[in-house]
User: Fold this.
Amino acid sequence: MREDYVLIDLFSGGGGYARGFVDTGRYRHVLGVDNYPPAARTYTVNFPSAQFIADDIKEVTGRLIRDYTGIGRGEVDVITASPPCEPFTGANPKRMRDPLDRLYRDPAGQLFLHAIRLIGELQPRVFIIENVPGIMEAPIRRSIRAELARVGYDTVYFNVLRAEEHGTPSRRIRVFVSNIRLQPARSKPPTVWEALKDLPPPGSPYPPNHEAGQIPSRHRRRLPRLRWGESLITYQGAKRRLPNYIRLHPYRIAPTVMGTSRFIHPFEDRLLTVREQARLMGFPDYHVFVGSRDAQYDMVGEAVPPPLARSIALVAAGVLDNYYSDHTRHSLEEREAR
Assistant:
């Protein structure tokens, strides 16, 4: 059983996907790619042994990645990717009406195709692309299958996974497009209070990213009357109004953590800190976020929750174990036949 499967992480963001993979101890993380400066700094702080390309992925080629890493075509075990979800999510009121326009005309949606392009150029044994359930609309789904077949992957699964079924104390439904079936073992999540109760007061020296934020003054007078599960405001999504500044229920799991959303502490009249929201996504306290406070919240809310990523990583490692075991056996049989 190997413990150094080669991992490349595209659209790496603040590193939630990589954190889950690396913390299994089964992967050699060689490269992250993202052009968002706070994400680049955050990633290099947390994964100092990995190379990082801080560039627009449209300018990144398989050859450039091979030059950075020294890893040849066909030598990559896993590529993970989290292209932007804004073109596809129902929370975006500016989402294009035609589903195919979201993939082929929206500049952000086209980045999904660049992830597929790089997968084709590098030919990993396993690829896993994360996005929102909006990519399950039939025209988008058919197009993604066709694009992956064009670069050499005829077997494609659209795996719908819930983060809360894999140890994450917040709700999150995501689709993982891959060439392997993902059915990771499930685990019970902690509640909000179980996840937060041992943290020191905001402003303490440890853990990092644990400074209290300010609620806009126009909303503060309503805050003491806010009950568990209630929100201070709503904003317009693509199909309906969505809540923000939600007072969390301490004995349930949290709603979906998003970069644009903020939560209110269940027992105190204040916003959750970045660290508290990171805990609701399953980030360990040693994972540090760099940049402005808003950038930190965004990186937390846009991440793949590390507990879910870890469950996926273990499934992928099992597939690779079988692959290399079969490859070794076939090589020995061929050698004996000669």
